[in-house]
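Intended use. Records like the one below are meant for learning the mapping from a protein sequence to its folded structure. Do not use them to infer anything beyond what is encoded.
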Amino acid sequence: MLGVSVRRFATSAIRRSHYEEGPGKNLPFSVENKWRLLAMMAAFFGSGFAAPFIVVRHQLLKK
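Structure written out for the chain above:
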């Protein structure tokens, strides 16, 4: 009996939600402007790629 009431609550909570639907609407960033998206992705992935090189350079220059 408890499982049925939990299932009813879960489905009613989903029905009550007012989120937009469609491609890109459930992401935490905007995909409307492709150039801004490109810049943000380049900065995100570029910083992760460059970090080890920056750390090694810092260690080599440290006295």
